[in-house]
Amino acid sequence: MILLYPLFISSALQETNINSCQDKNVFKIKKFEMTSPNIPRAGTLSFSFYAELTYQIENPFLEIQVLSEDNRIPVFRIRDTLCRDNVLRCPASFSPVLYKNQIHLPATLNPGSYILRFTFREGKQTISCYEKSFQQL
Asked: What is the mean pLDDT for each group of 10 consecutive residues in the chain (137 residues)?
């Protein structure tokens, strides 16, 4: 079982839908929660998801991006390795995943529509992709 707790999340999360951005996903997100889809300027975007790994993987990582819906250029990006002590013993297969994190949005971010994108990768290959829209107020 994978448990990732990079940061303590104190905000109340609400269950919501998340959209796949590719046809076949090795990580299948079963439950997605985030703070309100309307985030105040310089606010914190908290999220968590429960997923199931449906295939054997060797050394996966998760890339999280915040993109503007207007030009799809990332305004924020982090990479998080999933193979770490007490997180995931690699290679892994058919395992549950519980991931929680939060992003502190910069005050310089213009109000508007944005996309929170989760891209699971192994090497250069994208093995899963999910997106959720939100508003920066």
From this structure: 43 85 94 89 90 91 93 89 75 85 89 94 96 91
